[in-house]
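re: ur question from yesterday

yeah so i grabbed the chain u mentioned. its 332 aa long if i counted rite. heres the sequnce exactly as i have it in my notes:
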Amino acid sequence: MRPQTIAADPSASDEADARWADDPALPGPDASTPPTDAATAAPPWTGIALAAAGSIAFSGKAIIVKLAYRYGVDAVTLIAYRMLFALPLFALLAWWAGRGKPALTRRDWLVVTGLGFCGYYLASFLDFAGLTYITASFERLILYLNPTLVLAMGVVIFERAVNVRQMIALAVSYSGVLLVFGHEVTFQGSHAALGAGLVFASAISYAVYLVASGEEVRRLGALRLTGLATGVACLFCIAQFLVLRPLSALAVAPQVIWLSVLNATLCTFAPVLMVMMAIERIGASVVAQTGMIGPLSTILMGVVILGEPFTGWIVAGTVLVLSGIWLLTKWR
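ran it thru and got these structure tokens back, copy pasting raw so excuse formatting
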């Protein structure tokens, strides 16, 4: 088993297999994956357009969560609604991707359950909880550090060597996050540290999933594993709500319902398919580079839709984070 080579972007959830890195909602194919023969006939711009659209859609998750919080809903209820609407979609994906393939063994179900808990349930919940305290822009930058965490786990678990250039790339990326964090403390107050810690824990949880899922991706396939693991995570999130909240807590503002439907479809399920189609056409490496549009789109949507601040500090921090991840990909 080896760690997956991924490109930027958590959360899930939201969000992975097909997404390459999300939302804390999906697992990443090897960044060296070339385009398939069947897709090479398609114009390259179609793959780039799909990759860009998928990255922007994934990034919209944080914006929708922040909008929903304005209606007084908490993280437990909000993530339960998101997963409730996403469950049938990913169940359908798992069925479709598993047609004609061997049934899952008991071991497979145990592994899928563990991966679903770590990669989608825990990562998504921590991400949603962290968004209570920090801006959507800062959340996206933290999640974008995911490749650095996978690299660190490769060093610790597999004793892989890290060269000087990779250390430079790491230093550049984390200096950008620290720069934005300093601004975030000024804007959000002392709770910014708690929010950043929760989102960073989300990124770690998802990185564990990526490292652990390599063998299962090869055995079951990326789409099938995504459908199964996300389906398990949906059940965990719904069960969490039933344990921690009364059923009366489901009575939320209508806007929360519609935002959750949008989150489950446009910002979770649809991007999975778009990114997988893009990888088929242009390969994972190009998709990974196109994914850098994700943090930029989150910042833009945060400023326009949420009224979040846009300062030189944020610009500088974002440039550093993106530059560091680009260098890490180039020098891997």
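noticed a couple things. The first helix runs from residue 44 to 69. also The radius of gyration is 18 Å.
anyway ttyl
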